[in-house]
Amino acid sequence: MSGQDQHKKFEEKTISSEPIFQGKIISLQVDTVTLPNGGTATREIVKHPGAVGVLALLGDKMIVVEQYRKPLEKSQVEIPAGKLDPGEDPLQAAIRELEEETGYRSSSLKHVCSFYTSPGFADEILHLYVAEELTKGEANPDDDEFLDIEAITLEEAQRYISDQKISDAKTILAVYAWQLYRLTGQIGHS
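Structure tokens predicted for ADP-ribose pyrophosphatase:
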């Protein structure tokens, strides 16, 4: 079976789609689909414009931001990140988010990988970049963003994961990518 046929093997064809909610960042729709066995089911789908995250390395430290995350009802330490504006190139968004949230600029951003954050119910794709050769400028977060900026070592990042100060997928993935980078000298696509 070819790769194309393999992808079609489990395809669910949309019969109808009902918009439920249209927000500033996300929308929600309920699709009725035909299953591969001929049955039908409903799928609740969150549509998202996509996002970027930046593993910003300053010598032997990683730049992170701490901010309150309302869905979790607690503060989290995360890599600088943000959503894509309509039609925005992910690399340009990564440059923008790094500077807005931390004040840092980089002359060297490299794509590490892109991944879907929650494919069971959302189409959000996150593009992860690594930034090196950082120069400090002035942070300019959005009006509704309240952040503390910190530079942490790999060991501190691993402890933050153990203590759940870091518990989001993009930051955990960035920490493991950084660890691999330190071990192999390679990160992202060649």
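The longest strand covers residues 104-116.
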